[in-house]
Design brief:
144 residues; mainly alpha
Length: 144
């Protein structure tokens, strides 16, 4: 004889729902983590560009100004991205907009920063696009 099966209790489904507060919460968590990683990378590479580190391509020509100026831009955007990641983790309603704005600005800066470090710039650009998608598609669903 087989053991009788018990129907699933509503309590178990409720616990699962508490764990995953809303649809797309994984995407939002992904966006927060990626924004924190982008912020840390931009801070590190911004400091390296300001200090004229040997990591970047030598004698590169930029659209505007020089490597130090772009280093300051990247450093400031990186700090805003790190702040935006913490705002997303704290579920603040404005954290989504800081994340979208800083990822959008960073994607433009990475395209302009491409002469310094092409493969890194393209990788960070692609991650920025994923962060923007995650926050636009699923960032506002936590209130719904």
């Amino acid at each position: 004889m087989s053991a009788p099966t018990t129907p699933r209790s509503p309590r178990r489904a409720e616990t699962r729902r508490e764990r995953h507060d809303y649809e797309g919460s994984g995407w939002v968590m992904f966006a927060g983590i990626m924004l924190a990683i982008l912020g840390a990378a931009n801070i590190i590479y911004g400091i390296g560009a300001i200090d004229d580190a040997n990591v970047f391509v030598g004698n590169a020509h930029y659209v505007v100004s020089d490597l130090k100026t772009w280093g300051w831009f990247i450093l400031i955007v990186g700090a805003v991205q790190a702040f935006g990641a913490f705002a997303i983790f704290s579920h603040s309603p404005w954290g989504q907009w800081i994340g979208i704005g800083s990822a959008g600005l960073n994607s433009i800066l990475q395209l302009l920063f491409m002469p310094a470090f092409p493969f890194l710039s393209m990788t960070l650009f692609a991650v920025d696009i994923l962060v923007i998608y995650a926050l636009i598609a699923y960032g506002g669903r936590q209130e719904a």
